[in-house]
Amino acid sequence: MSFKIGSAPCSWGVEDANDPHNPAWEKVLDEASQAGYKGLELGPYGYLPQDVELLQNALAQRDLQIVAGTLYDDLVSPENFQNIISKTHVTCKLISKLPKASQVDGQSYATPYLVIIDQVNKVRSPFAGHPDKAPRLSTDDWNQMMKHIREIGKITSEEYGIRSVVHPHAGGYIEYADETIRLLNDIPSEVAGLCLDTGHLYYACMDPVQWLKKYADRLDYVHFKDIDIAVYKNVINRQIGFFEACKENVMCPIGKGIIDYEAIHKTLHEIKYKGWITIEQERDPRDADGSLADVRESLKYLEKIGY
């Protein structure tokens, strides 16, 4: 078997741990297990319990394991640096003390990972999906962000034995082709790898198949999403924010959207990718009652076409 498939709390609309509309964390674990998943990401900082014994018992009861933690934050501001370092330590301590997630023979780095994402922000979010219009960081700000990522990667590797992977994300300052290429030039492979997300690639006008092929040597981890093309065209034409688009259901179950997952399956085999794939479907947390059906449908579709 080349792949193992996991899920993530964002498929229940959980993007901000403090959102009052979030479903209970027990519901997310229950439904991920009921849908047939064996792996799960932690989701936003503080959403799942940070008490190791409590979380370990909750996962074991549902036959789940944590495949990645997430550092989703402002990676640019010097004023936020100590905050992200603190979150890095807390998250890595937690996932390093949990039972090790199962591995796929031949995967580049052992799970779990720390997924590093520059958060969706007010400046860039309205330009998600508009590479020609989106303002870029100044050279000084970009270099500051790269310095922060290098420090995070050093901490995760040297202190916890955890691989950091950077995730280009719609609405943040690492989103488009030029920014992703610049990131890979500035961050050595030994410091951090790459997490490519098929949905965010498409949203940012980047062909998922081409990018998986071109950057296979830096690819440590993969996220899957699918996009409702009619909704996508509508929200792009209106130039609304990324999470506003998600609340309008721009993301849909795998196999229901525009992304060709049979071609991606072929590509992953061609590049000899081995490891975890995490399915995500960002949505409004107030619509979380529809999550179980959707995450189950996505998994069944991928299983049907050979994943």
UniProtKB/TrEMBL annotation:
It comes from the Bacteria. One of its GO terms (molecular function) is endonuclease activity. Keywords: Endonuclease, Hydrolase, Nuclease. It holds the Pfam family AP_endonuc_2. Residues 29-304 form the Xylose isomerase-like TIM barrel domain. SUPFAM superfamilies: Xylose isomerase-like. Gene3D superfamilies: Divalent-metal-dependent TIM barrel enzymes. This is AP endonuclease. It comes from Anaeromicrobium sediminis.
